[in-house]
Every structure is written in structure tokens, then in C-alpha cells.
Specification:
Blueprint (H helix, E strand, L loop, with lengths): L7 E6 L5 H10 L5 E5 L11 H18 L1 E6 L2 H14 L4 E2 L5 H7 L4 E6 L1 H5 L1 H10 L5 E5 L3 H6 L6 H11 L7 E6 L8 H7 L4 E4 L1 H14 L13 E5 L3 H18 L1
Parallel strand pairs: 1-2, 1-3, 2-9, 3-4, 5-6, 5-7, 7-8
The chain binds D-glutamic acid.
């Protein structure tokens, strides 16, 4: 497979969550072009069995390869936890994954507890347990599985009563618990950052998107794959496994919203 600098970067997620990563990448790498595949027909991944998540991840990668990409970003913590090694073994181009931003959270300072919100699969897998093992003697870290939350967001629900009731439920036992940082360990949750902040006003809310795009840039540089196109030649194209009439407008709308807000 011949990789060329001016080919696009492929990105996929179980659905619309990875659009939050795409927005960060579009901003930080204005000379790059992107093909985004949202597997919204099969979302959420976070409560599926591993075999199925692996199969869906490989299919998503193959879909993007067919269109022509020079690197792949797995813009999904769940798919990264389960499938990143298989994807790296199978494909010879750079494959970049995600992880909850626990390291930056610990580096911020010594006060308070850190909550990591993520899908049940992400929090159960060895990848997260290893990460937790590195930092748990330095800080009090509370993994907080959020089954069903990505699904709510996938339905286009980024605010309102359903989200508020969900957050009220998961946070009520933690409210007086000296929480200083909340790590969003699922790319869907970035779209409800404001709502999370409302529930835990004293806490800082972090996501892994900046770190992922920084890492992507380093890997492109190491492989001499940084595009030399001008920023006005940047192309962004969306694909979905679900009904395009329903999901394409949502992907576009969320991308614009993130680009305006950040
Ligand atoms: N956006 C995905 C993640 O970062 C997961 C959502 C899902 O359960 O599909 O983990």
C-alpha cells in the first residue's frame, strides 16, 4: 500500500462521538483532509461483546481504506480498548488510538479526587486497568461506568431532561466527595461537557481529544506524512452506516458547533 502525504486521514467511531475528535483535528491540523465514518447503525459499542466490537472496528477501517487514507484514528475509547492491537497488526499504516486523559488529570495537581466517566467496556479492559495502575497510588481515582449515556447522546440528545436525569443519577453519590477533575473517557461525552460542568461546578472537566490529535501529528511527522496542502484545500467528508438523511445533518451540525465553541 502506497501512502502519500496528501491523502486523507481516516477516523471512525461507533457513531457521532468521534466528531468531537474530528473538530479538534480540523482545528489543529488545518492542512490535513479527513474522512469520517460513523458506525451509527451499530452504536453503542460500549455494551457489546468484544468479538463484535473487533469485527465492527475492522469493517469500519476497511471501509475507509477503500476510500484511500494514509493513517487511521480510532476516535472511540471503547474500540481502542478492544481492537487497537488487531488493527495495528492487520494494517501497515499508522493507527492512532484514544485513552482517557488520566495522565494530564494527575499532572494538574495533587488536590481532590478524579472521576473517569467511560463505557463499561472501556473501564473493564486491561488497557484502562494498566493506566489506572500507573496512577492510583498518586491520586484517588473513581472509575464511573455510564451504560446507556452514549446511546442517549447518539440520539442527538446533548442537553435537556434525559441527560440531566442521567447525570443526576450517576453523580448524586459523588456530589460531596471532593471531586476536582472529571475525565470524559468516551468521545460522545464531549458533547455534554457543559451539562457535566453544571452538575459538578467545582470540578475541571477534561477530555482526551487534544492529546490524541497531538499524538496523531507526531506520528504523521515521524512517518513523513504531514500534508503540504494549503489550509483552504482541507477537505472533510462524512460517511455513515446508518440512514444518511438522519445522521449526516447531525454530524455536520456537531462539527460546526465544536468548531465554534473551541
Ligand atoms: N464514543 C465511544 C467511546 O469513546 C463509545 C460510545 C459507544 O458506546 O458506542 O468510547
Amino acid at each position: 500500500m502506497i501512502l502519500a502525504k496528501n491523502m486523507a486521514i481516516g477516523m471512525f467511531d461507533s457513531g457521532l462521538g468521534g466528531v468531537s475528535v474530528l473538530a479538534k483535528a480540523v482545528k489543529m491540523l488545518p492542512q490535513e483532509s479527513f474522512l469520517y465514518y460513523g458506525d451509527s447503525a451499530h452504536a453503542p459499542y460500549g455494551e457489546k461483546d468484544e468479538k463484535e466490537i473487533k469485527r465492527l472496528s475492522i469493517e469500519a477501517a476497511e471501509f475507509l481504506i477503500e476510500k484511500g487514507i494514509k493513517a487511521l484514528v480510532v476516535a472511540c475509547n471503547t474500540a481502542t480498548s478492544v481492537a487497537i492491537e488487531d488493527l495495528r497488526k492487520r494494517f501497515s499504516f499508522p493507527v492512532i488510538g484514544m485513552e482517557p486523559a488520566l495522565k494530564p488529570a494527575v499532572e494538574i495537581g495533587p488536590q481532590g479526587k478524579i472521576v473517569v466517566m467511560a463505557t463499561p467496556v472501556t473501564l473493564q479492559k486491561e488497557k484502562f486497568l494498566r493506566l489506572l495502575g500507573k496512577f492510583q497510588d498518586q491520586r484517588d481515582i473513581i472509575p464511573l461506568p455510564c451504560p446507556g449515556l452514549a446511546e442517549l447522546i447518539e440520539r442527538g440528545c446533548c442537553s435537556g431532561t434525559d441527560i440531566e436525569n442521567y447525570l443526576e443519577d450517576v453523580f448524586h453519590t459523588l456530589k460531596n466527595d471532593n471531586i476536582s477533575i472529571i475525565v470524559l473517557g468516551c468521545t460522545h461525552y464531549v458533547f455534554i461537557k457543559k451539562e457535566v460542568k453544571k452538575f459538578m461546578p467545582g470540578a475541571q472537566v477534561l477530555d482526551g481529544n487534544f492529546g490524541t490529535v497531538k499524538h496523531l501529528e507526531e506520528v504523521l511527522r515521524e512517518n513523513d506524512l504531514i500534508s503540504d496542502l494549503a489550509p483552504d484545500e482541507q477537505r472533510i467528508k462524512f460517511f455513515t452506516s446508518a440512514d444518511p438523511a438522519q445522521f449526516m445533518p447531525l454530524y455536520h451540525q456537531l462539527l460546526s458547533r465544536e468548531l465554534e465553541n473551541n
